[in-house]
């Protein structure tokens, strides 16, 4: 599979360099492989040192992963223990379970987390019983899990999400490597033009060795489950309302394989993977070449419209709006902003590279902040007829922006999807002729957040509202390797649905 450049890359052996305590290299695996072959030949460290014209102290450093040996020494060692040089440098896992456990324990004891405990190291030598080694490795894994869980607070998650949003803004919300990977994948599966079909998605899954299986009993904490052992991607029933979303779910599951994702090591890593699989799904549902060709033609005609883009590729309005943000700046030269806003005015999701200035807290997080009442994202809720997009110009402290908004309804309530651009780019869009204009001075509280003076004087001392408490305010952030997922439920599901015989 093509690499995305995000996974760990092999580091070549240097000429006898010392290895730092936190070195990411695989020197430790190499050292344990040397030890394995040495003990298999019943050679002591001293005997091997004599055979290769080295010292026991130098070979001890090598076997413990603290020194990367010269290539000449490696060749001599390979000859002395009766193996080929490639056997020592092979990329495969450690030669046996004990070597694997010794490596895990050694790495754990070199971590800052272990150093902070202030306890002595345990030498993972041959005299350490196997069951003790297993227990120590399991204890360190649990310590790491608990430490990770402890730092994954809502504040940490918001910081990670903000950092990721700012990174995507720097890139104009455009990831060319994933664009190329997504388009190549669907073209190879038979896509030609128009909306991506379910059968094409199934072809893509089969090309990777997976069958798509629809089930009624998916674990409640999951959207999809992939059985890596039996080559199955489990999805909700195909007959559920809005089944077009099943293509996206399947493509997101496929994306983990195509992008060579490994288990996330932090909440930030989890969020990055989520962004990447969503991007891959979008790049498959609306392939770049088809999208750019369509949008460039509409731009030339000054007839860009998200609702037409949506219908041309058979996706939701939100999916079309988000996909437009990927293409708009990189291929059309149009800076843009995107908002998903609840009917209470809270911002659920946002992106901008046009300087509109999204509402944010002191740390830059935008989720849960309230959008100005005068912005199109909220004004659209006040209209009676909502079958078409709502257009509005809004004067703000950052300049004048033209916006197109469509409203929808989810189980959690109504929401709006907005795509907006600076005034001088409105000329490319249908709806630019609207005479609806509003003015916003937010974040000045006098704009829309302070009550009228007369109403305040009448009611401030005669009201006592009971606030609706959002459950997520008090809920702990979901923890675990895959945040929010009940592992026990998932494993039981896989066991119940695994093919028999």
Largest sheet: 6 strands, mixed
Order of strands across the widest beta sheet? 5-4-8-7-6-9
What fraction of the residues are assigned to beta strands by DSSP? 5-15%
Order of helix and strand elements from N to C terminus? HHHHHHHHHHHEEEHHHHHEEHEEEEHH
Nearest-integer average pLDDT: 85
Topology, number of strands: 9
Rg over C-alpha atoms, rounded to the nearest angstrom: 29 Å
- Oligomeric state of this protein: single chain
Counting H and I runs of at least 4 residues, what is the number of helices? 19
Helix content: 40-55%
User: How many structural units, i.e. domains?
Assistant: 3
Shape: elongated
Specify the structural class: alpha+beta
Span between N and C termini?
30 Å
Q: Unreliable runs, pLDDT <50, ≥5 residues?
A: 1-25, 471-477
Question: What does this protein look like?
Answer:
- The protein is built from 19 helices and nine strands.
- The chain has three domains: 27-151, lambda repressor-like DNA-binding domains (434 Repressor (Amino-terminal Domain), Orthogonal Bundle); 159-285 and 481-501, no CATH class; 311-443, Beta-Lactamase.
- The strands form two sheets. A six-stranded mixed β-sheet has the order 5-4-8-7-6-9. A three-stranded mixed β-sheet has the order 1-3-2, with helices on one face.
- Strand 7 (399-410) and strand 8 (413-422) form a beta hairpin.
- The relative contact order is 0.08.
- Helix content is 43%, strand content 11%.
């Amino acid at each position: 599979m093509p690499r995305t450049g995000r996974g760990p890359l092999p580091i070549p052996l240097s000429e006898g360099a010392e290895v730092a305590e936190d070195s990411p290299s695989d020197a430790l695996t190499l050292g344990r492989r040397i030890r394995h072959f040495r003990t298999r030949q019943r050679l002591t460290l001293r005997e091997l040192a004599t055979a290769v014209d080295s010292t026991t102290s130098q070979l001890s450093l090598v076997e413990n992963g603290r020194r990367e040996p010269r290539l000449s020494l490696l060749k001599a060692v390979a000859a002395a223990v009766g193996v080929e040089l490639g056997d020592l440098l092979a990329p495969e896992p450690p030669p046996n379970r004990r070597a694997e456990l010794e490596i895990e324990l050694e790495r754990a004891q070199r971590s800052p987390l272990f150093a902070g405990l202030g306890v002595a190291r345990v030498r993972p030598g041959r005299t350490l019983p196997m069951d003790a080694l297993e227990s120590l490795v399991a204890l360190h894994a649990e310590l790491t899990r608990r430490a990770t869980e402890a730092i994954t607070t809502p504040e940490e998650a918001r910081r990670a999400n903000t950092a990721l949003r700012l990174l995507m803004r720097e890139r104009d919300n455009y990831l060319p490597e994933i664009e190329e990977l997504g388009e190549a994948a669907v073209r190879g599966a038979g896509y030609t033009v128009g909306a991506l079909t379910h059968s094409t998605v199934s072809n893509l899954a089969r090309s990777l060795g997976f069958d798509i299986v629809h089930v009624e009993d998916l674990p409640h904490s999951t959207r999809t489950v992939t059985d890596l052992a039996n080559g199955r991607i489990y999805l909700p029933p195909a007959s559920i309302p809005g089944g077009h979303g099943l293509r996206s779910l399947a493509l997101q599951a496929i994306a983990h394989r195509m992008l060579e994702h490994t288990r996330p090591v932090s909440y930030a890593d989890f969020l990055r993977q989520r962004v990447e699989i969503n991007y891959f799904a979008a790049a498959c549902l609306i392939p770049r070449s088809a999208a750019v060709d369509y949008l460039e033609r509409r731009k030339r005609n000054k007839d860009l419209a998200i609702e037409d883009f949506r219908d041309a590729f058979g996706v939701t309005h939100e999916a079309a709006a988000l996909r437009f943000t990927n293409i708009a700046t990189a291929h059309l030269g149009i800076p843009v902003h995107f908002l998903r806003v609840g009917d209470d005015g809270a911002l659920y999701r946002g992106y901008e590279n046009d300087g509109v200035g999204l509402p944010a807290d002191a740390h830059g997080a935008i989720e849960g902040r309230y959008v100005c009442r005068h912005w199109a994202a909220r004004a659209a809720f006040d209209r009676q007829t909502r079958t078409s997009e709502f257009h509005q110009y809004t004067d703000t402290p950052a300049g004048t922006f033209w916006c197109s908004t469509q409203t929808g309804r989810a189980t959690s309530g109504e929401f709006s999807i907005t795509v907006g651009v600076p005034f001088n780019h409105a000329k490319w869009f249908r709806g630019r002729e609207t005479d609806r204009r509003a003015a916003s001075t937010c974040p000045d509280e006098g704009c829309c957040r302070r009550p009228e003076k007369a109403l305040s004087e009448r009611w401030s001392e005669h009201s006592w509202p009971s606030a609706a408490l959002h459950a997520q305010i008090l809920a702990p952030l979901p923890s675990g390797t895959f945040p929010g997922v009940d592992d026990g439920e998932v494993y039981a599901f896989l066991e119940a649905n695994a093919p028999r015989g």
